[in-house]
Amino acid sequence: MRTSIFILCFWLTALGLRAQGYILLPMDEAQTNHLKAYGITYKVLELKQEAWWLLNYRGGSFAFPYSDVFKKECITRGVRFEVLAEAKFNNILNQIADPEVNMEAMKLEVPPKIAVYSPTVNARGKEIQPWDDAVTLVLTYAEIPYDLVYDDEVLNMKLPEYDWLHLHHEDFTGQYGKFYASYNNQQWYREYVRNMENLAEKHGFNKVSQLKLAVVKRIQEFVAGGGFMFAMCSATDTYDIALAAEGVDICDHMYDGDPADPQAQAKLDFSKTFAFKDFQLVRDPYKYEYSTIDASPMTAPARRVQDKQDYFNLFEFSAKWDPVPSMLTQCHNRTVRGFMGQTTAFRKTQIKSNVLVLGENKAANEARYIHGTFQKGFFSFYGGHDPEDYRHFVHDPATDLNLHPNSEGYRLILNNVLFPAAKKKKRKT
Description:
This is Asparagine synthetase B. This protein is an alpha+beta fold.
């Protein structure tokens, strides 16, 4: 017993955890680096220390017991912090607990283990993906660890090892991103197609669309079992299209060697999807669009959102009654700059009624950020490719987040990353 007490005291001393109160990371406009603040909080959880997410308090601030180690991390990473006496921190908790204020204190417990679904290299070690991924960029910048997974890992049942899975610019329909018209003569595209075909053959599938459907079904099982899935850009709509088109050939001959089923649209089963309903497929194989889910000019010619006026607003939820959407929308600015992608925004008429809209462009009648549940798990879909690059093209350089440490758009991604760490309270009834 004495040995155990000695070991505990040793680690407390090593961390500098003494009677010095708490460190508060303000997440309002006073914060110098919002993105790295998430990484600091993740580090605290990695070291098995408790942390608090103070919803709607100064922009959704974080707090944890004082430590010389944590103080040094804040200074090193350029994150603004405040040292609070224990009595002052307790006063903040009491203020938050007031039923008249829209705030809540969420205890953060275990750091989620993160997987990013991404085809970084082919079998010969050559990069085949000529675009970057906003989530890997911000995880790297915030210094939050993650593992890369792809079809091999998913089909070999590795997903249950993780708590949180990210999908980005991926085409789960087997149409290779519908890049054929623009890029079929380029080397990177041919490498991409060859790698996908090899993967399909490796796993016993005749077509890439069959491989991707199997991957989609494994991810569905991951979410059903309690996993957290976050998708951006074309991974959002193509995921649901693949589910709805199970058993239906929606790929034209240049994608899988034979024509698409002419009755494909009538055979879609929207009861299988996570978020979307009643959408129309874009059957033209030369058009860079999948369906009417995306509120783009290709499917909605009347859409006239000018670059300088492209913003979306975050809804404000009751932190005490609805802590989940409140966590996902914590930000120092309720108005967020819009950004484009292959899938930019979601047509509201094609979102299922049980799916929650977290952010919308009301003037354009489109949702940009949505959230829902599937059995025991959760999913969030976020339109667009890169929050700080309005129009990101193939082969464009990656965004330097040193230039955007206070990005509202990137903060929304990191809200999703920390969300699984929260100790869920029973919903008030």
